[in-house]
């Protein structure tokens, strides 16, 4: 009798696992392919070979690019090399990427940069905030940018017991920022988060005075940014394939306004400074990312979301590639007719945009 019960329970367990796996395949668009879309003249950026996970462009046209991310479950083309921050001046005729020198006193050997965000203070000093994963932990590093010669001066490392499994960051004041937690568990149990569709991740607010959760209910809270007027925060939920629009309130609270549902796995978000549109770096087929095969690589996709606050936002494809040129796109950012597209572990793309016919 006991043996029969054990076999029955085993069979039920296997059936549940099979059902969850089929659900997962559907969730990550395991069968999806994309048709190529190119917005203008595009070419790969020389010198960026091991990822360009996040990009932030200053109003002046200077672009910061985080590179070399080592992330659990993701490929890395240089697993033993530390990460870098690259700089590009998009005002130049032929912009080139240069790795920024980082000041002494900072542990450059364990630098593992993820999401980034810039902040310009009242003295017009540029600060770069970087989500860092030294030894697979989570910290936030604050750097001051020096223009001549271009370099980063490390100012501070922020550590806190509440800052775990961080992904992206958006700075909203001096040492004040929102950041996303992309996994609730920080060990092998994170696999079950995806299989069971647990929505336990969230958005945190940090200041030197407090650290608190300000928005909950995400499957995997990922990219985060703010609207042009700073009244709304946009958060990508990569496993739910959507973007949450949250309104900023008193005491840094975020209130849910709407969800923009998409048919792709949304990673990082930026805002077009000229239009207020959201640009989303996306993974069209998550299965190819989870089970990486260089002979059949994950593709890239960039979406533009117009009229974000309206009842029917307009979604259009800015860029799409099946992986033959660009693998596993994470972010897209624009400035004065120039477009940069970044990836988790692969290259980075520079495009000169064609004039819109709209």
Give the gist of this structure:
The protein is mainly beta. Helix content is 10%, strand content 44%. The termini are far apart.
Mean pLDDT: 92
Q: In terms of quaternary structure, what is this?
A: single chain
How many separate helices?
Answer: 3
From the spread of the alpha carbons, the general shape counts as globular
Distance between the termini: 72 Å
Task: Tell me the fraction of residues in β-strands, as a range.
Answer: 35-45%
Q: What class would the helix/strand composition place it in?
A: mainly beta
Can you offer a commentary on this structure?
With 358 residues, this protein is mainly β. It contains three helices and 25 strands. The strands form six sheets. A five-stranded mixed beta sheet has the order 6-10-9-8-7, with no helix packed on it. Strands 1-25-24-23 form a four-stranded antiparallel beta sheet, with no helix packed on it. Strands 2-3-4-5 form a four-stranded antiparallel beta sheet, with no helix packed on it. β9 (139-146) and β10 (151-158) form a beta hairpin. The protein is globular, with a radius of gyration of 20 Å. The mean pLDDT is 92.
